[in-house]
Amino acid sequence: MSAVTWLAIAGGAVAPGLMAFGLFVWADAWTYSPLALNAFKCALGSSLFGLVVLIFYRRPMPERVVLWLAFSSLLGIVIADTLWLAALQILGARRMIAIDALKPFVAAFMGYFLLGDAVPWLGYLGVVVCALGVYLLNVESAEKKEADEDAVEADDVAVEEATEPPYLRGYAYATVNVVLDVYAATITVAERGPLSSAEVNLLRFGLAAVLLILVWVLREGRRKSDAKPMARRDWLRVALGVVFVTFLTPLITVWTMFVLPLAVAVTLWSLTPLWALPVSVYFGQKVSSRAGAGALLATGGVVMLAVAVT
């Protein structure tokens, strides 16, 4: 196996750790709406990618590639992420985790039929094992979060039977999110042409930033916000988090798609809960046997994937 493949596997496994660190950095610092956060991080991330492209890649971009990547951005960042947020509000974290766990399998299907990826049987087994481990880690995290949220007065959580969330619509949103997200990644791999990861991310996040800012102006820009103003330190925390979450992480993960089979790359992206585990231990949280088993399975799955593509 070439050194580039080894580097892609290592980068794909480490990138979720960068995301986990970024999310930890900006935790509780953002006080405005999720739409505003999405617009801010896309704008800042695309600016950083633009700086990289300006320094290292001063060349024209093929019009056909630009159009395909714009379409990929519309599907994967604007529509899919919006559906994900809507589904999360309806289903809650634990139900969303079950649907999100399907992404590696959808990637294996689309990678095989649309990109011609051929992964040995050990690689597909690694996808299953790793996805199961990540699922256990995610469920553990979601249950802890829900336990914290349940510590409220009974009057705040009492609802009538008729007001239960429309779960069917939530599952539809979540399923479409999975399909669009993976299909957008497939388009990116198939139609990127000669462009680098930085150029691809500049186009995708740049278009997403423009559309999200436009939506924010139309929906929230003229309304007076009740959110608490953010201090300069909070803005710096969020900006630093964006550097890790929306710049360094996609810079690496998009490149891994160009080197590894799509199923392997997408499976490696899902390892954020594995990296979040030592952070929890650092802050004194106990690791349950289920979380420990999930960590072992996820790590074993990564080893299987590495062996399969060597």
Automatic annotation (TrEMBL):
Keywords, alphabetical: Membrane, Transmembrane, Transmembrane helix
Alphabetized PANTHER family for the sequence: ACYL-MALONYL CONDENSING ENZYME-RELATED (PTHR22911), SOLUTE CARRIER FAMILY 35 MEMBER G2-RELATED (PTHR22911:SF137)
All residue ranges annotated as the EamA domain in the record: 31-138, 183-305
Signal peptide bounds: none
Organism: Pelagomonas calceolata
Transmembrane annotation, as ranges: 6-27, 39-59, 65-85, 121-139, 171-190, 202-218, 238-271, 291-309
SUPFAM superfamilies registered for this protein in UniProt: Multidrug resistance efflux transporter EmrE
Any one GO cellular component localisation term in the record: membrane
Pfam family, one: EamA
Protein name: EamA domain-containing protein
